[in-house]
Automatic annotation (TrEMBL):
Pfam families: Band_7. GO terms for cellular component: membrane. Residues 303-323 have a biased composition (Polar residues). This is SPFH domain, Band 7 family protein. It comes from uncultured Thiotrichaceae bacterium. Residues 41-203 form the Band domain. Residues 289-323 are annotated as: Disordered. It is a single-pass membrane protein. It is found in: Membrane. One of its GO terms (biological process) is mitochondrion organization. Keywords: Membrane, Transmembrane, Transmembrane helix.
Length: 323
């Protein structure tokens, strides 16, 4: 009977559970709802190309801890700020006032990204909106300062690389704010239409003058070449004139006679009939006659025969009249 009077521990727990069940159910329900409500603050997924900086309620920003890609579990009271650490591009247009008061509109493309190791300091000192707080204002300030000392014409034509120098200065200034600006690309430069037309006319005139100077230099070089060529021809003739002695001319005549003797053409040569004993070429018409047609040859033969008969008749008449 004594064992039956004292209930067991399990029985006591069941009795207590029955008595406390409504309260326990309410407590479990509250915990479940709390987990559902704070789930997105407790379990956080950092996507590819992103990094996180945690702000703790009781200790502040963790500047020495950068949370990488993946799943992380945090205290729901803390806040995780996610930054994109890939290269990003921002497009921005602004005006620059030249030293003569003309407005030049520049259209830029800025490639940038935050420095990964310094992401905590960037978040603490500047914040997620660092593009509009630091990068764009500082680039505008440097570009206006560097280009404001030049005319619109010089800016438009990038005289002596002034745009390049301004961009390099802006990159150096912005890089001191825990961000990496890889490049600043000038997409376009816009000037007032009348100024653009005057600049284009000036550039065309400069190109024309360069072309004219080039043609002038080419003509001068050609004149120098012709002068040198004429001087060479003059020297050549002077040398030839000095070297043409009678002995040389006689030798050339002998060589020409030998070549003529070897020629197959019909010719009559009188040896020793010329000056210095050189041959005289006669009866060159015979060679031309040989090349005529037969009819022409016959007519020439008949005329020659008639001429011979006339000569004979005249000779006979002359003989008869002699005593």
């Amino acid at each position: 009977m004594e064992n039956n009077e004292i209930p067991s521990a399990s029985l006591q727990f069941k009795r207590w559970l029955r008595r406390k069940f409504p309260l326990l159910f309410i407590l479990i329900l509250i915990v479940a709802l709390t987990l559902v409500f704070f789930w997105q603050r407790v379990v956080i997924v950092i996507d590819s190309g992103e990094a996180g900086i945690l702000f703790r309620v009781f200790s502040g920003t963790e500047i020495d801890q950068v949370y990488a890609e993946g799943v992380h579990i945090f205290n729901p009271l803390d806040t995780l700020y996610i930054y994109e650490v890939r290269k990003q591009v921002a497009y921005h247009d602004f005006d620059v006032i030249s030293n003569k008061g003309l407005t030049v509109n520049l259209s830029l493309a800025i490639r940038f990204r935050p420095e990964y190791e310094l992401l905590g300091i960037l978040h603490q000192q500047i914040g997620p909106d660092y593009l509009n707080r630091v990068i764009i204002p500082q680039i505008e300030s440097v570009m206006r300062k560097e280009l404001g000392n030049y005319t619109a014409d010089q800016i438009y034509t990038n005289e002596e690389g002034l745009l390049t120098n301004a961009i390099l200065t802006a990159l150096d200034e912005v890089g001191r704010n825990y961000v990496e600006v890889e490049d600043i690309i000038i997409r376009s430069i816009t000037l007032p239409p009348q100024l653009v037309k005057s600049i284009e006319d000036k550039l065309r005139q400069e190109e024309f003058m360069k072309s004219y100077e080039f043609r002038q230099q080419t003509a001068q070089k050609e004149a120098e070449r012709l002068a040198i060529e004429a001087e060479g021809i003059k020297s050549y003739h002077q040398i030839i004139d000095e070297s043409l002695t009678e002995s040389v001319l006689l030798h050339k005549g002998i060589l020409a006679t030998e070549a003529l003797a070897k020629s197959p053409n019909a010719k009559v040569v009188v040896i020793g009939g010329g000056k210095n004993g050189l041959p005289i070429i006669l009866n060159t018409d015979t060679a031309r006659t040989e090349a005529l047609p037969n009819d022409e040859k016959n007519r020439m033969s008949e005329s020659d025969s008639a001429g011979v008969n006339n000569d004979n008749a005249a000779n006979s008449t002359g003989l008869d009249e002699k005593p």
